[in-house]
UniProtKB/TrEMBL annotation:
Active-site residues annotated for this sequence: 267
EC code(s) of this entry: 3.2.1.4
Keywords: Carbohydrate metabolism, Cellulose degradation, Glycosidase, Hydrolase, Polysaccharide degradation
Limits of the Glycoside hydrolase family domain: 1-340
Record-level GO BP terms: cellulose catabolic process
Protein name: Endoglucanase
Length: 367
Protein backbone atom coordinates (compact mmCIF):
# COMPACT_ATOMS: atom_id res chain seq x y z
CA UNK A 1 0.00 0.00 0.00
CA UNK A 2 1.71 3.15 -1.19
CA UNK A 3 -1.21 5.58 -1.06
CA UNK A 4 -1.79 7.87 1.91
CA UNK A 5 -3.60 6.28 4.86
CA UNK A 6 -3.98 9.39 6.99
CA UNK A 7 -5.70 8.94 10.34
CA UNK A 8 -8.26 11.41 11.67
CA UNK A 9 -9.64 12.02 15.14
CA UNK A 10 -12.55 13.60 16.96
CA UNK A 11 -12.07 15.62 20.15
CA UNK A 12 -13.73 18.33 22.22
CA UNK A 13 -13.13 20.98 19.59
CA UNK A 14 -14.00 18.67 16.70
CA UNK A 15 -16.77 16.40 18.05
CA UNK A 16 -18.09 13.21 16.56
CA UNK A 17 -20.98 11.99 18.69
CA UNK A 18 -22.12 9.52 16.03
CA UNK A 19 -18.82 7.66 15.65
CA UNK A 20 -18.05 7.86 19.39
CA UNK A 21 -21.56 6.69 20.28
CA UNK A 22 -21.42 3.80 17.83
CA UNK A 23 -18.05 2.72 19.23
CA UNK A 24 -19.43 2.92 22.78
CA UNK A 25 -22.36 0.72 21.75
CA UNK A 26 -20.05 -1.82 20.11
CA UNK A 27 -17.75 -1.98 23.13
CA UNK A 28 -20.67 -2.33 25.55
CA UNK A 29 -22.14 -5.18 23.52
CA UNK A 30 -18.74 -6.87 23.18
CA UNK A 31 -18.17 -6.63 26.93
CA UNK A 32 -21.18 -8.91 27.41
CA UNK A 33 -19.71 -11.45 25.00
CA UNK A 34 -16.37 -11.63 26.83
CA UNK A 35 -17.75 -11.38 30.37
CA UNK A 36 -17.20 -15.08 31.18
CA UNK A 37 -14.27 -16.01 28.96
CA UNK A 38 -12.15 -12.90 29.55
CA UNK A 39 -13.53 -10.77 32.40
CA UNK A 40 -10.55 -8.40 32.43
CA UNK A 41 -11.00 -7.56 28.76
CA UNK A 42 -14.76 -7.25 29.25
CA UNK A 43 -14.21 -4.77 32.09
CA UNK A 44 -11.81 -2.76 29.93
CA UNK A 45 -14.33 -2.62 27.07
CA UNK A 46 -17.13 -1.51 29.35
CA UNK A 47 -15.00 1.12 31.07
CA UNK A 48 -14.05 2.70 27.75
CA UNK A 49 -17.61 2.38 26.44
CA UNK A 50 -18.84 4.51 29.34
CA UNK A 51 -16.07 7.04 28.79
CA UNK A 52 -16.87 7.30 25.09
CA UNK A 53 -20.56 7.79 25.77
CA UNK A 54 -19.83 10.61 28.20
CA UNK A 55 -17.60 12.23 25.58
CA UNK A 56 -20.16 11.73 22.78
CA UNK A 57 -22.98 13.20 24.86
CA UNK A 58 -20.92 15.96 26.45
CA UNK A 59 -19.46 17.27 23.20
CA UNK A 60 -22.19 16.90 20.62
CA UNK A 61 -21.67 17.14 16.91
CA UNK A 62 -21.51 15.09 13.70
CA UNK A 63 -18.19 13.56 12.80
CA UNK A 64 -18.58 14.53 9.14
CA UNK A 65 -18.77 18.18 10.20
CA UNK A 66 -15.46 17.81 12.02
CA UNK A 67 -13.81 15.66 9.34
CA UNK A 68 -14.92 17.03 5.99
CA UNK A 69 -13.11 14.28 4.05
CA UNK A 70 -15.71 11.64 5.01
CA UNK A 71 -18.72 13.52 3.64
CA UNK A 72 -18.18 12.14 0.14
CA UNK A 73 -17.88 8.55 1.38
CA UNK A 74 -19.61 7.88 4.70
CA UNK A 75 -21.72 10.90 5.53
CA UNK A 76 -23.76 10.77 8.73
CA UNK A 77 -27.14 11.34 7.10
CA UNK A 78 -29.17 10.42 10.20
CA UNK A 79 -27.09 12.66 12.46
CA UNK A 80 -25.79 11.58 15.85
CA UNK A 81 -28.89 11.35 18.03
CA UNK A 82 -29.73 7.79 16.99
CA UNK A 83 -26.20 6.70 17.96
CA UNK A 84 -26.54 8.34 21.39
CA UNK A 85 -29.76 6.41 22.04
CA UNK A 86 -28.16 3.24 20.63
CA UNK A 87 -25.16 3.58 22.93
CA UNK A 88 -27.30 4.30 25.99
CA UNK A 89 -29.44 1.21 25.39
CA UNK A 90 -26.43 -1.08 25.01
CA UNK A 91 -24.81 0.43 28.10
CA UNK A 92 -28.02 -0.14 30.03
CA UNK A 93 -28.08 -3.76 28.92
CA UNK A 94 -24.40 -4.24 29.78
CA UNK A 95 -24.44 -2.45 33.15
CA UNK A 96 -28.04 -2.53 34.35
CA UNK A 97 -27.65 1.08 35.50
CA UNK A 98 -31.05 2.81 35.43
CA UNK A 99 -29.52 6.15 34.41
CA UNK A 100 -28.96 4.90 30.87
CA UNK A 101 -32.62 3.91 30.47
CA UNK A 102 -33.65 7.27 31.94
CA UNK A 103 -31.57 8.88 29.19
CA UNK A 104 -33.34 6.88 26.47
CA UNK A 105 -36.77 7.73 27.88
CA UNK A 106 -36.04 11.40 28.60
CA UNK A 107 -34.63 11.99 25.10
CA UNK A 108 -37.11 9.78 23.23
CA UNK A 109 -38.95 12.63 21.53
CA UNK A 110 -36.17 15.18 21.08
CA UNK A 111 -33.77 12.59 19.63
CA UNK A 112 -36.36 11.08 17.26
CA UNK A 113 -36.47 7.68 18.94
CA UNK A 114 -40.26 7.68 19.17
CA UNK A 115 -40.78 9.97 16.20
CA UNK A 116 -39.08 8.34 13.24
CA UNK A 117 -40.99 5.52 11.53
CA UNK A 118 -38.10 3.81 9.75
CA UNK A 119 -37.96 1.13 7.03
CA UNK A 120 -34.20 0.49 7.05
CA UNK A 121 -31.33 -0.25 9.41
CA UNK A 122 -27.72 0.37 8.45
CA UNK A 123 -24.27 1.48 9.59
CA UNK A 124 -25.68 5.03 9.57
CA UNK A 125 -29.36 4.81 10.52
CA UNK A 126 -29.78 3.10 13.91
CA UNK A 127 -33.36 4.03 14.80
CA UNK A 128 -34.94 0.65 14.01
CA UNK A 129 -32.37 -1.08 16.22
CA UNK A 130 -32.94 1.47 18.98
CA UNK A 131 -36.68 0.90 18.81
CA UNK A 132 -36.37 -2.89 18.90
CA UNK A 133 -34.01 -2.80 21.90
CA UNK A 134 -36.40 -0.46 23.72
CA UNK A 135 -39.33 -2.74 22.86
CA UNK A 136 -37.42 -5.64 24.42
CA UNK A 137 -37.37 -3.81 27.75
CA UNK A 138 -41.12 -3.30 27.53
CA UNK A 139 -41.77 -6.94 26.66
CA UNK A 140 -39.62 -8.08 29.57
CA UNK A 141 -41.16 -5.64 32.02
CA UNK A 142 -37.78 -4.07 32.76
CA UNK A 143 -39.00 -0.54 33.37
CA UNK A 144 -40.78 1.69 35.85
CA UNK A 145 -44.44 2.62 35.61
CA UNK A 146 -43.44 6.12 34.49
CA UNK A 147 -41.32 4.74 31.63
CA UNK A 148 -43.95 2.37 30.26
CA UNK A 149 -45.80 4.83 28.03
CA UNK A 150 -42.61 6.02 26.33
CA UNK A 151 -41.43 2.46 25.78
CA UNK A 152 -44.81 1.65 24.22
CA UNK A 153 -44.18 4.45 21.71
CA UNK A 154 -40.77 2.95 20.95
CA UNK A 155 -42.42 -0.44 20.42
CA UNK A 156 -44.99 1.03 18.04
CA UNK A 157 -42.16 2.32 15.88
CA UNK A 158 -40.29 -1.00 16.15
CA UNK A 159 -43.36 -2.81 14.89
CA UNK A 160 -43.72 -0.27 12.08
CA UNK A 161 -40.28 -1.42 10.87
CA UNK A 162 -41.18 -5.10 11.21
CA UNK A 163 -44.52 -4.61 9.44
CA UNK A 164 -42.84 -2.55 6.71
CA UNK A 165 -40.62 -5.52 5.92
CA UNK A 166 -43.70 -7.78 5.91
CA UNK A 167 -45.55 -5.32 3.69
CA UNK A 168 -48.40 -5.05 6.22
CA UNK A 169 -48.54 -1.35 7.05
CA UNK A 170 -51.67 0.41 5.81
CA UNK A 171 -51.13 2.19 2.52
CA UNK A 172 -52.59 5.32 4.08
CA UNK A 173 -49.14 5.75 5.56
CA UNK A 174 -47.84 6.63 2.09
CA UNK A 175 -45.81 4.78 -0.52
CA UNK A 176 -42.87 4.55 1.89
CA UNK A 177 -44.89 2.76 4.58
CA UNK A 178 -43.67 -0.64 3.37
CA UNK A 179 -40.45 -2.04 1.96
CA UNK A 180 -40.47 -2.96 -1.72
CA UNK A 181 -39.90 -6.59 -2.71
CA UNK A 182 -38.17 -7.87 -5.83
CA UNK A 183 -40.03 -10.51 -7.90
CA UNK A 184 -37.82 -13.12 -6.21
CA UNK A 185 -38.75 -11.91 -2.73
CA UNK A 186 -35.71 -9.80 -1.78
CA UNK A 187 -36.35 -6.76 0.39
CA UNK A 188 -35.32 -3.74 -1.66
CA UNK A 189 -34.36 -0.32 -0.26
CA UNK A 190 -32.03 1.28 -2.79
CA UNK A 191 -29.72 0.55 -5.70
CA UNK A 192 -26.30 0.91 -4.09
CA UNK A 193 -25.38 -2.10 -1.95
CA UNK A 194 -28.93 -3.16 -1.21
CA UNK A 195 -27.74 -6.38 0.42
CA UNK A 196 -26.76 -4.50 3.58
CA UNK A 197 -30.44 -3.75 4.19
CA UNK A 198 -31.39 -7.37 3.48
CA UNK A 199 -28.94 -8.90 5.96
CA UNK A 200 -29.68 -6.28 8.62
CA UNK A 201 -33.42 -6.86 8.20
CA UNK A 202 -32.95 -10.61 8.58
CA UNK A 203 -31.06 -10.06 11.84
CA UNK A 204 -33.50 -7.53 13.30
CA UNK A 205 -36.58 -9.52 12.31
CA UNK A 206 -35.16 -12.70 13.79
CA UNK A 207 -34.19 -10.89 16.98
CA UNK A 208 -37.62 -9.34 17.39
CA UNK A 209 -39.30 -12.70 16.77
CA UNK A 210 -37.18 -14.11 19.60
CA UNK A 211 -38.16 -11.25 21.93
CA UNK A 212 -41.84 -11.89 21.19
CA UNK A 213 -41.47 -15.63 21.81
CA UNK A 214 -39.66 -15.04 25.11
CA UNK A 215 -42.49 -12.75 26.24
CA UNK A 216 -45.20 -15.14 25.10
CA UNK A 217 -46.54 -12.60 22.59
CA UNK A 218 -47.81 -14.12 19.36
CA UNK A 219 -48.38 -11.13 17.09
CA UNK A 220 -47.19 -7.70 16.01
CA UNK A 221 -49.60 -4.84 15.36
CA UNK A 222 -49.14 -2.95 12.12
CA UNK A 223 -50.12 0.58 11.11
CA UNK A 224 -53.79 0.40 10.19
CA UNK A 225 -54.60 -2.35 12.67
CA UNK A 226 -53.55 -5.44 10.73
CA UNK A 227 -51.59 -8.04 12.69
CA UNK A 228 -48.87 -10.53 11.76
CA UNK A 229 -47.76 -13.64 13.59
CA UNK A 230 -44.38 -13.89 15.24
CA UNK A 231 -43.76 -17.03 13.20
CA UNK A 232 -44.28 -15.05 10.01
CA UNK A 233 -41.66 -12.53 11.16
CA UNK A 234 -39.13 -15.32 11.76
CA UNK A 235 -40.01 -16.94 8.41
CA UNK A 236 -39.30 -13.72 6.51
CA UNK A 237 -35.90 -13.47 8.21
CA UNK A 238 -35.10 -17.03 7.13
CA UNK A 239 -36.32 -16.34 3.58
CA UNK A 240 -33.92 -13.39 3.26
CA UNK A 241 -31.02 -15.58 4.38
CA UNK A 242 -32.01 -18.23 1.86
CA UNK A 243 -32.18 -15.59 -0.88
CA UNK A 244 -28.63 -14.48 -0.11
CA UNK A 245 -27.42 -18.09 -0.23
CA UNK A 246 -28.92 -18.85 -3.64
CA UNK A 247 -32.69 -19.33 -3.37
CA UNK A 248 -33.33 -16.59 -5.90
CA UNK A 249 -34.26 -16.33 -9.61
CA UNK A 250 -30.61 -16.36 -10.73
CA UNK A 251 -29.60 -19.23 -8.48
CA UNK A 252 -26.61 -17.14 -7.35
CA UNK A 253 -25.16 -17.18 -3.86
CA UNK A 254 -24.22 -13.63 -2.95
CA UNK A 255 -22.00 -15.02 -0.20
CA UNK A 256 -18.67 -15.38 -2.03
CA UNK A 257 -17.19 -18.87 -1.88
CA UNK A 258 -20.48 -20.55 -0.96
CA UNK A 259 -22.51 -22.70 -3.31
CA UNK A 260 -21.99 -23.71 -6.92
CA UNK A 261 -22.40 -20.20 -8.33
CA UNK A 262 -21.26 -16.96 -6.71
CA UNK A 263 -19.76 -13.59 -7.83
CA UNK A 264 -16.35 -14.10 -9.43
CA UNK A 265 -15.35 -10.46 -10.03
CA UNK A 266 -15.77 -8.86 -6.63
CA UNK A 267 -14.88 -5.16 -6.50
CA UNK A 268 -12.00 -5.66 -4.07
CA UNK A 269 -8.36 -4.75 -4.69
CA UNK A 270 -6.67 -7.66 -2.92
CA UNK A 271 -9.05 -10.23 -4.42
CA UNK A 272 -8.62 -8.94 -7.97
CA UNK A 273 -4.80 -8.77 -8.09
CA UNK A 274 -2.48 -11.75 -8.36
CA UNK A 275 -1.06 -12.80 -4.96
CA UNK A 276 2.51 -11.87 -4.08
CA UNK A 277 3.53 -15.51 -3.74
CA UNK A 278 2.83 -15.93 -7.47
CA UNK A 279 4.43 -12.69 -8.60
CA UNK A 280 7.02 -10.66 -6.70
CA UNK A 281 6.50 -7.71 -9.03
CA UNK A 282 5.65 -4.39 -7.34
CA UNK A 283 2.04 -3.39 -7.96
CA UNK A 284 1.26 0.18 -6.99
CA UNK A 285 -2.13 1.85 -6.99
CA UNK A 286 -2.01 2.94 -10.63
CA UNK A 287 -0.60 -0.42 -11.79
CA UNK A 288 -3.38 -2.27 -10.02
CA UNK A 289 -5.99 -0.15 -11.72
CA UNK A 290 -4.37 -0.21 -15.17
CA UNK A 291 -3.41 -3.89 -15.29
CA UNK A 292 -5.98 -5.68 -13.13
CA UNK A 293 -9.15 -3.68 -12.57
CA UNK A 294 -10.47 -3.94 -16.14
CA UNK A 295 -9.74 -7.63 -16.70
CA UNK A 296 -12.74 -9.76 -17.63
CA UNK A 297 -11.36 -12.91 -16.03
CA UNK A 298 -12.40 -14.06 -12.56
CA UNK A 299 -10.53 -12.69 -9.56
CA UNK A 300 -7.33 -14.68 -8.85
CA UNK A 301 -8.27 -14.76 -5.14
CA UNK A 302 -11.67 -15.89 -3.86
CA UNK A 303 -12.85 -13.52 -1.13
CA UNK A 304 -14.49 -16.28 0.92
CA UNK A 305 -17.23 -15.07 3.26
CA UNK A 306 -17.80 -11.67 1.66
CA UNK A 307 -21.34 -10.62 0.81
CA UNK A 308 -21.52 -8.31 -2.19
CA UNK A 309 -23.95 -5.46 -2.87
CA UNK A 310 -26.33 -7.82 -4.65
CA UNK A 311 -29.02 -7.54 -7.31
CA UNK A 312 -31.36 -4.71 -8.25
CA UNK A 313 -35.11 -4.41 -7.66
CA UNK A 314 -35.78 -6.89 -10.48
CA UNK A 315 -33.26 -9.49 -9.23
CA UNK A 316 -30.78 -8.56 -11.99
CA UNK A 317 -27.08 -8.79 -11.21
CA UNK A 318 -24.08 -7.92 -13.38
CA UNK A 319 -20.90 -9.64 -12.18
CA UNK A 320 -18.34 -7.04 -13.26
CA UNK A 321 -15.57 -5.49 -11.19
CA UNK A 322 -16.51 -1.97 -12.31
CA UNK A 323 -20.12 -2.49 -11.18
CA UNK A 324 -19.22 -1.51 -7.63
CA UNK A 325 -22.84 -0.84 -6.59
CA UNK A 326 -23.50 -4.57 -6.93
CA UNK A 327 -20.10 -6.29 -6.59
CA UNK A 328 -18.38 -4.34 -3.80
CA UNK A 329 -17.88 -6.37 -0.61
CA UNK A 330 -18.61 -4.69 2.73
CA UNK A 331 -18.10 -5.88 6.29
CA UNK A 332 -21.47 -4.43 7.29
CA UNK A 333 -23.13 -6.79 4.80
CA UNK A 334 -21.58 -9.88 6.36
CA UNK A 335 -21.67 -8.93 10.06
CA UNK A 336 -25.42 -9.43 10.69
CA UNK A 337 -25.32 -12.71 8.76
CA UNK A 338 -22.80 -14.10 11.24
CA UNK A 339 -25.49 -13.72 13.87
CA UNK A 340 -28.10 -15.33 11.62
CA UNK A 341 -25.85 -18.27 10.81
CA UNK A 342 -25.11 -18.78 14.50
CA UNK A 343 -28.82 -18.85 15.31
CA UNK A 344 -29.77 -21.11 12.41
CA UNK A 345 -26.92 -23.46 13.28
CA UNK A 346 -28.13 -23.65 16.88
CA UNK A 347 -31.70 -24.32 15.73
CA UNK A 348 -30.53 -27.10 13.42
CA UNK A 349 -28.47 -28.65 16.21
CA UNK A 350 -31.40 -28.53 18.64
CA UNK A 351 -33.67 -30.12 16.03
CA UNK A 352 -31.17 -32.96 15.49
CA UNK A 353 -30.99 -33.50 19.25
CA UNK A 354 -34.79 -33.61 19.52
CA UNK A 355 -35.02 -36.15 16.73
CA UNK A 356 -32.32 -38.26 18.29
CA UNK A 357 -34.09 -38.14 21.67
CA UNK A 358 -37.39 -39.12 20.02
CA UNK A 359 -35.71 -42.01 18.24
CA UNK A 360 -34.15 -43.24 21.48
CA UNK A 361 -37.43 -43.07 23.37
CA UNK A 362 -39.16 -44.95 20.56
CA UNK A 363 -36.52 -47.67 20.63
CA UNK A 364 -36.79 -47.91 24.41
CA UNK A 365 -40.57 -48.29 24.16
CA UNK A 366 -40.23 -51.10 21.65
CA UNK A 367 -37.80 -52.92 23.93
Amino acid sequence: MTTSRQAYKVDRDHPGSDVAGETAAAMAAASMVFRKSNPHYAHLLLHHAQQLFEFADGYRGQYDSSIAEVKSYYASVSGYKDELLWAALWLHRATGKPGYLDYVVDNAHDFGGTGWAITEFSWDVKYAGVQILAARLLLRGEHTAEQKRTLERYQAKAEHYVCACLGRNAQAGGEDANVERSPGGMLYIRQWNNMQYVTNAAFLLSTYADYLAEAGVGTVTCAGGETAGAGEVAALARAQVDYVLGTNPRGVSYLVGYGAKYPARVHHRAASIVPYKHSKQFIGCSQGFEHWFGRRSSNPNVLVGAIVGGPDRRDRFRDNRDNYMQTEACTYNTAPMVGMFAKLNRMAREERERRAATARSGTAAEV
